[in-house]
Design goal:
The protein is an alpha/beta fold. The chain is built from 17 helices and 7 strands. It is elongated and about 70 Å long.
Amino acid sequence: MDWLHDDRTDCYSVLMTITTGKYLELVRPAHERRGAIFGQRDVLKTTTAKRIRERMTSDIRAGAVLPPVVVGLIVEKEEAGSITEGNYPDQEQFLSLAADKTLSIIDGMQRTGSLLEAAAADQSVYTRCMRVEFWVAQSVRALIYRMLVLNTGQVPWTISRQLSVVYAPLLDEIRKNVKNLGRIFTPDKPGRRVGGGEFSSESLVELYLAFSLRKASVDTRESLSDEFSRLDFVENLGSEKFQGHFYEVLSILSDLDTCFDRYEGKSGMRFARGRDVFGSQPARIGFIVAVAQHVLGRPGLDRTFEDQDTRMETVVAEAVALRDRLELLDIAALGDFLRLDVLSEILDKRVGQVGRYERGVFHEAFRLLISEHFDVPSLEPCWRAS
């Protein structure tokens, strides 16, 4: 084993040689959880691509040595603290630790797929040795940062494809750091939203992207090919406070969503119940981006870290004050505060690009709410802000 400490992100790079069987044993649970471990890139379907894949598989069976696969590993703070220079765990201890964690393959999905195919056809592949590099981090932020920087010179991926690699660890951190979240629906455990604070895993990942890029219109298919978007993303991830700010904003959103959920309307309007407001992804994105721009600054106009911390503390305090005020209202008064009839009328327009229009309405609405320090008699002026 060869250990190197990355001072920039406080990660450890661990290079080791293990058997292919041991490697596939480690990554197989990830395969079962996510459905396809080589989802890092779309399945190659062209004739040329298939031939190249078949050649790689046959080369592996013939004894070829592949470049190291890079695997991400998130550890607890206490576990990371026990790893110090001169006191590194041995290989058996390290692999035992890794076996209990959610692994993310940062580089080497296609090679892993070829190894699985080669081993299925030839059992001797399991006993051959291969090199694996582990990136050991305490936060998914550091892992995403490292992944984006390492892949900057490669063919651009979409942001959604990038984050799919660290999808499970990101959701684990969200669950751990946002205490007031309700159920999180995933492709493996689908569900229907029946209360405040419940969101799908895909919508949470999109909110993370929107907060990072500070844009209400996030094209997860194309944004990473925009070099400015890539730079903004990497710059934000370079801040140790960034991840914590996202969790605080998500906590505020979940709090308000739960408060709004108390109101049950009876009309047939699209926004009839309180939970319908943040049941809309455009509303969630509008809120997240409005807070991100207020706290972090607009893209290209980043605030100092001290200013970001001060603004975040103020937003949290003001949002908590609004939450406490709403909790004291009776149901009728809460409905009067929400003014969902006004919101429904504003959004009931025949426009092109409905999603973009709605994100714009909600973005302007929550920008006004923030500028008024969350102290408004009702949300009507917010809904009419655009």
